[in-house]
Design brief:
alpha+beta, 2 domains, three-stranded antiparallel sheet, 2 helices, DNA binding, ATP-dependent DNA damage sensor activity, RecA_ATP-bd, P-loop_NTPase, DNA repair protein RadA
């Protein structure tokens, strides 16, 4: 059985070939008036998802997983290491949540600073703060 597909339509400029999701009087690329015509886009599987940068790995039996690779690296903050089961595991993602002002950024920036000083690749990602707030 094949997954259902969603038919999508869009608009294509007859002058320059630019595509737009909705009709507008003027092509946003070449600025020509009245040149957008409805064009069917290729149908995509209804449940298809593309995750940018995520490598695909085949399913494996748990007995085939090399457990030595997943050793936790201590953060240098004893209580955080205890909560994380010994520290941060390379390749893992940790979501830290809490009320505003409780010190999430301060804690993680100190952990990130220590990791960077030890030569570990470090990335601080936030979904709620601007760069100036961090």
């Amino acid at each position: 059985m094949t997954p259902r597909t969603r038919a999508r339509s869009g608009y294509r400029c007859t002058e320059c070939g630019a595509q737009a999701a909705q009709w507008v009087g003027r092509c946003p690329t070449c600025q020509a008036w009245g040149t957008l015509e409805e064009a069917a886009a290729p149908a995509a599987p209804a449940r298809a998802r593309v995750v940018a940068g995520a490598p695909s790995t085949p399913a494996r039996r748990i007995s085939e997983v090399d457990l030595d690779v997943a050793r936790a690296r201590p953060t240098g903050v004893a209580e955080l290491d205890r909560v994380l089961g010994g520290g941060l595991v390379p390749g893992a993602v940790v979501l830290l949540a809490g009320e505003p002002g409780v010190g999430k950024s301060t804690l993680l920036l100190s952990v990130a600073t220590r990791a960077a000083r030890e030569g570990a690749p470090t990335l601080y990602v936030t979904g709620e703060e601007s760069a100036a707030q961090v």
